[in-house]
Specification:
The structure holds 2 protein chains of 2 kinds. In chain A, about 60% of the residues lie in helices and about 15% in strands. Chain A is built from 12 helices and 10 strands. In chain A, the strands form 2 sheets. In chain A, strands 1, 2, 3, 4, 7, 8, 9 and 10 form an 8-stranded mixed beta sheet that branches. In chain A, strand 5 and strand 6 form a beta hairpin. In chain A, helix 8 runs parallel beside helix 11. In chain A, about 35% of the residues are buried. By secondary structure, chain B is of the alpha/beta class. In chain B, the strands form 2 sheets. A 6-stranded mixed beta sheet of chain B has the order 6-7-8-3-9-10, sandwiched between helices. Chain B has 7 helices and 10 strands. The chains are: A alpha+beta, B alpha/beta. At the A-B interface, helix 1, helix 9 and helix 12 of A face helix 2 and helix 3 of B.
Chain lengths: ~400, ~230
């Protein structure tokens, strides 16, 4: 009567466990080595993520979000601004990116109004998609000047009509100082009062690294060409439409990817060294127990049983180390996070759930490299030669 | 005839290929059979083909020519798995070296073959190993580590291990080679005694004529050829 495969597997695992625990010093040293390797691997991955994230934020803040373009159009088309905005946004292409649209009467000087004090550039902005989903921005009012009525371009605005522009908008619109923003409700009144062509700026992000300036220019000038023709404007006007890519961090981003890669390579390298150590230890064990593999064949063991035995021994070691690594990473994590935050202004985390798949992948590498060749050697033992030696 | 034979060699030979195309003949074409439940000793000088014969009888090698039937199974043609199962179930092998895991308990050394083909649970295997240890005269030593046993006791453990699966064929290769004479006599008596109930057949390969003469028949091998077979 044959023993079922499952029962055979269970018995081989039991034998592996007895073999592994028999040499306690070897088990302790290899588990320690593997755990340290896995912890360094986790640390390097955490460092890679943390530094990468910090660099990305810094690049976005200082050099612009990747794939961002600034489209400037002077609206002297004798057409309602909303229509021009709709046309420009529709011309952005089939990807329908969310666009940030800013309106402004550039270089408008505030006129005097009795009893008021506010002055500055007049800007309103909104988020707009091609489906005309409008999300009106409403920065909180602040500052003494915004507490009372304001006078801009000779018009008295109530306190609710102005609010400070968000810092991000200030950057993308390339403004030196934080201006006040005219709320949409009062914006038409300002336009009527100023009587100057309104400038509109569309900031759009395509979330990609490819250059779209030419494609955008073609699309937008083609879309606005009929309006220009109706207004009697020449082609020179169309050439005046400004399209700039405003993310300047391409090379820095490449460097950032390089830094992340270096950290990860170091992590995998440490893991590779750990794998080699396990491989050497397991090969020595296989060599010392050649007689056992020979005897096992005499007892009816199949080659696959012996390969499985070698794999199971390394597998148990790696599982043990993996459990220890998880426990230690949870214990160490708070201290490491606060230490790295205090010293390097980055938060390195070892106990991040997102690292688990990488950790499991690393553990699999350890097991595969550490067990593969010894398993092959064990399965190829010639029983009679092994027992004669 | 086949059902009554422990093994049957029909013009079976064993040739080892060497690098460069040379060949070494381990066993010349041989025809020989052993009745079930009997004992036989194989004697011969070094290089006479004893190891080749053992490797065929223990089914660890297939014959280069001819056929080998062991316990009614033609191992020349059977699949590797079938032959491995036959070994696990019905064949016990004892070697000159004890090949024990010295840091393990004696009972575990005896129970090891159970891992690869024995029936029942671990507790059953443990009970069986204790029983076999009792049969070979090592009652009460099951929990002792193998390294704490004497040479004769270690060989008895090796014999107990070979008996773990209740084999019908016991093949012993120089089982007394590492033992002093009194101990060797005890071990030989134990091995041949296994055939007492007529269920187990015993083949012992030995240099020691004193050990050989305890078998029912003695076969002499010379240069890979079966020279003579005499009743002792």
């Amino acid at each position: 009567m044959r023993v079922s495969t499952l029962r055979r597997l269970g018995r081989v695992l039991y034998l592996a466990w007895r073999n592994v625990r028999r040499s306690r010093a070897r088990l302790f040293l290899l588990t320690l080595l593997t755990t340290v390797g896995l912890l360094i691997f986790l640390f390097m991955y955490g460092l890679s993520d943390a530094s990468g994230s910090q660099l990305e934020t810094a690049i976005d803040e200082n050099l612009g979000v990747e794939g961002t373009y600034r489209i400037s159009v002077q609206n002297d088309l004798l057409t309602a601004t909303d229509d021009v905005v709709d046309t420009v946004v529709a011309a952005l292409g089939p990807e329908n990116p969310l666009a940030l649209v800013a309106y402004g009467q550039v270089a408008v000087e505030p006129g005097g109004c009795a009893g008021t004090s506010a002055d500055g550039l007049i800007i309103a902005y909104e988020l707009r998609s091609p489906e005309r989903l409008v999300s009106q921005a409403s920065a909180p009012r602040r500052g003494a000047d915004a507490d009372g009525p304001s006078c801009i371009a000779g018009i008295v605005l109530p306190p609710a009509g102005l609010s400070p522009l968000a810092p991000l908008m200030q950057r993308v619109l390339e403004l030196d100082e934080q201006p006040l923003v005219v709320e949409a409700a009062v914006s038409p009144s300002i336009e009527l009062s100023v009587g100057e062509p309104e400038a509109l700026v569309v900031i759009v992000n395509f979330q990609g690294s490819g250059d779209r300036v030419d494609a955008l220019r073609t699309g937008i000038t083609n879309a606005l060409a009929p309006m220009a023709a109706r207004s009697g404007l020449t082609e020179d006007w169309l050439e005046g439409i400004s399209i700039q890519r405003i993310d300047e961090g391409a090379s820095v981003r490449a460097a950032e990817q390089g830094v992340k890669l270096v950290y990860q390579v170091i992590g995998w390298g440490v893991l590779g060294l750990g794998s080699l150590a396990i491989l050497v230890a397991q090969l020595m064990t296989t060599q010392n127990r050649t007689w056992f593999f020979g005897l096992a064949r005499v007892w009816g063991a199949r080659r696959s049983d012996l390969a499985l035995l070698a794999i199971a021994e390394v597998g148990l070691l790696v599982v043990l180390s993996l459990c220890l690594t998880l426990v230690l990473s949870i214990v160490i994590d708070p201290s490491l996070s606060s230490w790295s935050r205090a010293n390097f202004d980055v938060e390195i985390s070892l106990a991040d759930a997102s690292v688990l798949p990488v950790l499991l992948g690393g553990a699999l590498l350890l097991a595969a490299v550490g067990a593969g060749y010894p398993a092959y050697r064990a399965s190829r033992v010639d029983p009679l030669e092994a027992l004669e030696s | 005839m086949t059902a009554e034979c422990a093994f049957k060699l029909s013009e079976a030979s064993l040739v080892y290929p060497l690098p460069g195309g040379d060949r070494v003949v381990g066993l010349q074409p041989t025809t020989w059979a052993l009745e079930s439940g009997s004992t036989v000793a194989v004697v011969g000088r070094s290089g006479s083909g004893k190891s080749s014969l053992i490797s065929l009888l223990s089914t660890m090698r297939r014959p280069t020519t001819g056929t080998v039937e062991v316990l009614g199974q033609d191992v020349s043609a059977a699949s590797l798995r079938t032959v491995a199962d036959l070994r696990a179930r019905d064949i016990g092998v004892v070697f000159q070296s004890f090949h024990l895991d010295l840091r393990e308990a004696t009972w575990w050394n005896v129970a090891l073959p159970w891992v690869f083909g024995g029936q029942g649970s671990l507790a059953g295997a443990r009970a069986r190993s204790m029983q076999v240890l009792d049969e070979v005269g090592l009652d009460g030593l099951g929990e002792r580590r193998a390294e704490d046993l004497s040479g004769g006791q270690k060989q008895r453990v090796a014999i107990a291990r070979a008996l773990m699966s209740r084999p019908r064929l016991l093949v012993a290769d120089e089982p007394t080679g590492n033992l002093d004479e009194p101990t060797a006599n005890g071990v030989a008596e134990l091995i041949y005694g296994m055939a007492g109930d007529g269920r187990v057949s015993v083949v012992v390969v030995t240099h020691d004529m004193a050990v050989a003469e305890r078998a029912q028949r003695v076969v002499t091998l010379t240069e890979g050829r079966l020279e003579s077979e005499v009743a002792s």
